[in-house]
Write a structure and sequence with these properties.
Blueprint: H1 2-12, H2 24-30, E1 33-38, E2 41-47, H3 48-54, E3 59-64, H4 68-77, E4 81-86, E5 92-96, H5 102-111, E6 115-120, H6 125-133, E7 138-139, E8 145-146
Antiparallel strand pairs: 1-2, 3-5, 3-6, 4-5, 7-8
C-alpha cells in the first residue's frame, strides 16, 4: 500500500500524477481523471464522475432481507423497468428505460419488502472500455490473430 499512500500524499499537495495501468479497477480507486488509449488512439478523456454519468447503466440493484422473487415481480410490472434479473447472490437488478425516474423505482422496492440495500449500479471502467472499443482481439488455436468488428 506504500505506492497508494505516496500517490494520495502527492495528490493532497496539489501535484499532478500520471499513472499508467491496464488494471482499470485500480485506476478507479486512485484517479480523478481518466484517459483511455486503444491501439495508440485516445478513446476517452474525462473526469471519473462525468464518465460514470455518461455511461450510466440505468440499473437499480436491490438486496433483499427476504424473498428476492417478490421484489422481482413488483419491479417487473413497473412500466419504467425494461428488464429484471436476479444474480447468483440473490440481488435483483432492474434495468430502467430511458428517462425513467430511478428514485421512484427505488421507492417502489422499499415499499415492497424488507431490504438490506437499494441503489444505482455504477459502471466500471472495464465496462466503459468494452463499450467504447469492443472486446480485445482474440487469438485462435493456430496462433493467428482474429479481429472482432462491432457495428
Amino acid at each position: 500500500m506504500l505506492l497508494n499512500d505516496l500517490i494520495r500524499e502527492l495528490h493532497d499537495q496539489g501535484r499532478t500524477i500520471l499513472f499508467s495501468t491496464h488494471v482499470l479497477h485500480q485506476a478507479e480507486r486512485m484517479c480523478d481523471r481518466i484517459v483511455m488509449i486503444d491501439r495508440g488512439r485516445k478513446v476517452l478523456d474525462d473526469r471519473l464522475d462525468r464518465i460514470r454519468e455518461r455511461f450510466d447503466p440505468r440499473t437499480i440493484v436491490v438486496e433483499t432481507l427476504g424473498d428476492s422473487k417478490t421484489i422481482e415481480s413488483v419491479l417487473r410490472t413497473a412500466p419504467e423497468v425494461e428488464s429484471v434479473t436476479i444474480d447468483a447472490e440473490g440481488r435483483v437488478h432492474a434495468r430502467l428505460r430511458n428517462l425513467a425516474d430511478a428514485d421512484r423505482i427505488m421507492e417502489l422496492a422499499v415499499q415492497n419488502g424488507p431490504l438490506r440495500s437499494v441503489g444505482r449500479a455504477k459502471t466500471t471502467l472495464d465496462e466503459v472500455f468494452i463499450d467504447l472499443v469492443g472486446r480485445p482481439d482474440q487469438t485462435d488455436t493456430t496462433g493467428a490473430e482474429t479481429e472482432s468488428i462491432h457495428v
